[in-house]
Amino acid sequence: MTFDSLPGGSNLAQRLSEVRGAGRRAAELTQQLLAFSRKQVVQHAVLNLNSVVTDIENLLRRLIGEDVTLIVMLAPDLRNVKADVGQVEQMIMNLAVNARDAMPAGGTLTIETANIVVYDRHSLGNPDFKPGAYVMLCMTDTGTGMTPEVRRQIFEPFYTTKPKGSGTGLGLATVYGMVQQTGGLISVDTEPGCGSSFKIYLPRTDEPRVESGLMVESDLHGDETILVVEDQGEVRRLLEVALTDYGYKVLSVAGGEDALSLLRTFDGVIHLLLADIVMPGMNGRQLANEVALERSGLRVLFMSGYPQNAITHEGILDEGVDYIQKPFTPNSLAKKVREVLVRR
Q1: pLDDT per position as a tens digit, 106-126
Q2: What is the 3-class SS of 112-153, one letter each residue?
Q3: What is the CATH number of domain 217-342?
């Protein structure tokens, strides 16, 4: 059954429509982050790209839409790299958005991983490559492809081939910057009408992955009540679905004033306030201050599309508060929520 075959007024059709919209919104938020990427605190850790791709695969399928087929081909013996997992997720999502936009009539997006050894600087047609062992992440689409002129400019900030108001021109520029920050390289193979293939090469590491202290899936569920405050309707509904799937009872409103009204009339216990930072009218920080007067002891988790150190620098958020940066996966949200709730 496809999305288009569902009855227009059915609950399933409405939910799928909201999920697709939320995915597009997540992509837009990713692009908004790019202007602040130089301020991000990068936390390199040993990770496996196969695990990163697997963790966000479902989100990617929602992001690219039902008219684009996603094929994932992961090398079973893939070696580790040392990188910031959030940056790697953003690279993949930005490239997926770029691929989706290059296939307006649908198509196929293939994600592959492989171990690569570079023996000399020109072995891959790029003199910037240093000989050594790399892990490759390749994302290939069957889209419109690019002319040589466009190809030469795609990594330039604010360059875009999209109509005015349809793109920021920051997506690929930030992918390029993140790859450079990780010590890797990116290459593009493309021709008009023949699609595009983006290959990211990250240096291989022999350092072991540190698994201690990680939560297992069963630890992520809970039965507490969470108040979600998010002004974007499609994002708010996706949060409701994600948290409900992990067992939580969810109350949700679109703004600070509505949240305060609910707090004053709801008789039950609310264990956590999950609030967006930047909202029309009362922002998340102002709401948290008011909530502290209404219900002392209520834990607060902020979220935003802006990096934490950027909004802290602007005085919008205090240092040391609990915070999760959009876009995030349901799994990463569940981990953060559980971390805040179980803290003594």
Answers
A1: 999 999 999 999 887 666 666
A2: EEEEEEECCCCCCCCCCCCCEEEEEEEEEECCCCCCHHHHHH
A3: 3.40.50.2300
